[in-house]
Amino acid sequence: MIAVFYDKNFTALQNNASLNVGKYEIVKRAVDFDDFSLTSEAFVENVNPCFVVMKNDLGKYVYAGFAGVPTLNDENQTELQASDLKTLFNNEILMQFGTYTYLDDMLEALFTAFNTQVLQGSFAIEVDMTDISDIELDADLIPTTELKVYNVWDDILVNYLKYYDCYMVSELDIPNQKIKYKIKKTGRYNVPLHLYDFGIYNYGKWVASLNETQGVVANNGTLTYGKIFILLADGSITSTVANRNLYPIKKNWILKETEDSSQVTSLLNEANIEALERIVENRYNESIEFNTNNIERYETADFDTNFDVYVKRGELYKTIPLGEIHITVDKNGTEEKKLVVGYKNNDIINYI
Questions:
Q1: Looking at the predicted structure, is the pLDDT value of residue 52 above 80?
Q2: 305-308 — which CB contacts under 8 Å span 24+ positions?
Q3: How far apart, in Å, are the Cα atoms of 92 and each of 239, 321, 335, 346?
Q4: Is residue 26 within 8 Å of 324, Cβ to Cβ?
Q5: What is the mean pLDDT of residues 194-215?
Q6: Which residues contact 75 (CB under 8 A, 6 or more apart)?
Q7: How far apart, in whole angstroms, are the C-alpha atoms of residue 185 and residue 142?
Q8: Is the pLDDT of residue 350 over 90?
Q9: pLDDT band at 345, cuts 50/70/90?
Q10: What is the rounded distance in angstroms from the CA atom of residue 216 to the CA atom of residue 181?
Q11: CATH architecture of structural domain 88-185
């Protein structure tokens, strides 16, 4: 197993550019940033790498991230904690959204502004949204047409990914000198997960701390109400009150106030987006962790997989998306793979 360091121009660093890796760990996350760490032979060059690429014994690409600075431990081994390529979007832009029918159209405008304002020619990126081209935007959830500052990841991407059941993955394309991203739909495949087969009895059955959000704008004594979001027992979100099935109701209001009636529409839009952000934080908040045990249907599971979780024989708890994939490879090349069903652990975030 080798790790290769590259500069920002995708050129491998001189001399000791390839390191023999003793161990590496990768935690991939569907709707949050990944973790990647490795331990290798000593890296002694006085350089500041931009990218690190992990390759297996056959030289095949395994994973890539922003390298940071390698450090030596007490045993004269290099330790490296890399950052997910998706952390590139932890940046602010000035954005004036238009009107859009489909999710990919809105995100295309977002990435265009990101290229111009943040990347400024420093990196080439490619975002493949073919898989989500048929997702229609909720008319109440299109960001305001007024000029605003947005954090691309926190304010836009993570909220829309969670709400529209999507996920993002990344890859470093060295031959073409670009970072490639894909946004895809979850739930393409359903796989049964029998907890009793794994001896799992404490499966983190979750009671929502919040199951309803709504925005409202107060303008000189007049209240204008925004979209209502109701979280259902299966993890889905509805605005149809008659479908509610989680009790007691635990509600958050997002209140905006103005004395200028011309600001009501814009503020209501902001309130809707904030209400969306709060409700999606509570989706699929379970955390069921298990080793794949070389069972094919679990070994090949990816973020387009949903799990039909059975607590007892014949007793379906709910259908939950895959939240994390943990991969650990030791110095002998032995791989251990664990899956985490649900999104509970995704508050662990690495920044560039």
A1: yes
A2: 305/186, 305/187, 305/188, 305/189, 305/190, 305/191, 306/186, 306/187, 306/189, 306/190, 306/191, 307/190, 307/191, 307/192, 307/193, 307/341, 308/190, 308/191, 308/192, 308/193
A3: 31, 29, 38, 21
A4: no
A5: 82
A6: none
A7: 19
A8: no
A9: very low
A10: 36
A11: 3-Layer(bab) Sandwich (3.55)
Q: Which of 210, 208, 207 is nearest to 252 (CA)?
A: 210
Across the chain, mean pLDDT equals 89
Is-contact 291 328, C-beta < 8 A? no
Q: For residue 278, what is the enclosing H or E element? A: helix 264-280
* pLDDT at 347 > cutoff 70: no
- Retrieve residue 209's tokens: 């701390």
Residue 106's pLDDT band (cuts 50, 70, 90): very high
pLDDT in tens, 166-193: 999 999 999 999 999 999 999 899 999 9
Handedness of CA 241, 246, 248, 252 (dihedral sign): negative
Q: Any alpha helices (H) in 14-125, and if so which ranges?
A: 103-114
Q: Give the C-alpha separation, 290 to 36, whole Å.
A: 20
Smallest CA-to-CA distance from 210 within 275, 270, 267 is with 275
Specify the pLDDT at position 352: 31
State the average pLDDT over residues 121-125.
Answer: 93
d(CA 37, CA 192): 31
d(CA 205, CA 310) in angstroms, rounded, equals: 12
Other C-beta atoms closer than 10 Å to the C-beta of 40 total 20
Say if CB 34 and CB 3 are below 8 A apart: no
Amino acid letter, 287: S
Give CA separation, 93 vs 117, 153, 162, 273, in Å: 7, 11, 21, 17
For 144, which DSSP code?
Answer: P
Copy the structure tokens of residue 288.
């069921």
**C-beta separation of 193 from 288 below 8 A:** yes
